[in-house]
């Protein structure tokens, strides 16, 4: 069993050094998030990135049994988490694959990360937080040396 995890420090940083509330102000789904197609219940990438950062550490596994267009998977990938998504609809599987291939392009990936940082859904890559005597990078670990 995995214990409950919540990154209070990071959520406080994202909220201007105040305790995070239960009301988040993040942009709605933007046109750039639908570049590979539209899903009827697609969630904003900013919401998923914030949820993932708040509740997991880098390298953690995330399971999405109804993955749809895989916004959770895109967020997990951008944040250095591992992802397993399940979907039975062929159309949405194709959309998920196209979205994954899209962020393999470094320019597109960096654009996504910049947009999420500007929306205050994630912190800049130079942010780090020490927990359990081990430095955990909650920015973009694979872009830093």
Please supply descriptive tags for the structure shown above.
single chain, 145 residues, alpha+beta, Rossmann fold, two-stranded parallel ribbon, 4 strands, 37% helix
Outline the fold blueprint.
Elements: H1 8-14, H2 45-55, E1 61-64, H3 71-78, E2 82-85, H4 90-103, H5 106-118, E3 128-131, E4 134-137
Parallel strand pairs: 1-2
Antiparallel strand pairs: 3-4
* CATH class category: Alpha Beta
Q: Mind describing the biggest β-sheet?
A: 2 strands, parallel
Alpha-beta classification:
alpha+beta
Put simply, the count of helices is: 5
* Low-pLDDT stretches: 128-145
- Share in helix: 25-40%
Instruction: Quote the beta fraction.
Output: 5-15%
Compute the average pLDDT.
84
N-to-C series of helices and strands: HHEHEHHEE
Total individual domains = 1
Distance between the termini: 33 Å
Numbering strands along the chain, what is their spatial order in the largest sheet? Answer: 1-2
Shape: globular
Radius of gyration (Å): 15 Å
Question: What is the CATH-assigned architecture?
Answer: 3-Layer(aba) Sandwich
CATH topology: Rossmann fold
| Count of strand segments | 4
